[in-house]
Amino acid sequence: MSGELMGTTELRASHADRDRVVDVLTGAAGDGRLTAEELDERVEAALTARTLGELAVLTADLPVPAGAVAAEVKDVARIEQRGGSARRGDGWVVPRRLEIVSHLGDVTLDFTQAVITQDTLRIDLDMHLGKLVLLIRPGIVVDTDSLVTGYGKIKTRGPAGTGVPVDLRIEIAGQLGFGKVLVRRKR
Fold first, then answer.
1. Same domain for 125 and 180?
2. Which of 60, 107, 49 shows the shortest CA–CA distance to 81?
3. What is the spatial distance between Cα 138 and Cα 149, in angstroms, rounded to a whole number?
4. Is the dihedral of CA 158, 181, 110, 70 positive or negative?
5. 12 by DSSP, 3-state: which?
6. pLDDT (tens digit, 9 = 90+) per residue, 117-164?
7. Which of 4, 51, 70, 181 is 20–30 Å from 152 (CA)?
8. Is 114 a member of any domain?
9. What pLDDT, in 10s, does the model give residues 87-122?
10. Range of the domain at 170
């Protein structure tokens, strides 16, 4: 994987990183946020985690304790590629804004196990002859009203998450030429 595409979440975790996550989990269980079974499962996962992304997923639904450092959230991240593909997967930290420049290639953003720390993500898209795939879970909505398409298609697949509170709103703006935006809803 190129250094340009490698994010903080893909860095190897240290013993100290694992210990910090176990402390957060133990505190959350003490506050009644996790059951004993959930605590056992997450502590086991923390002790065997290889990357910071694997650790971030374990505490993504818990408040950050006072004095602790939250997962690093970038204001702006950028994906730029030509003739290839790029992917953000398990445990990636969702930035506030994402700039995507892609020509003759595909970009896949998997939000099913992403670390989401804010309620809105703006994607500024400049894509030609390619495909943007968003894998989303219930509680995530996608707005493409500001996307200009020139011989492009926008498709949504999967069941709508009606009645689920919105955790993240993804706003896609910019331009799509001879390409496709595909939103796949997962259960």
1. yes
2. 107
3. 26
4. negative
5. strand
6. 888 999 999 999 999 999 999 989 999 999 999 999 999 987 776 677
7. 4
8. yes
9. 998 778 899 999 999 999 999 999 988 888 888 999
10. 76-185
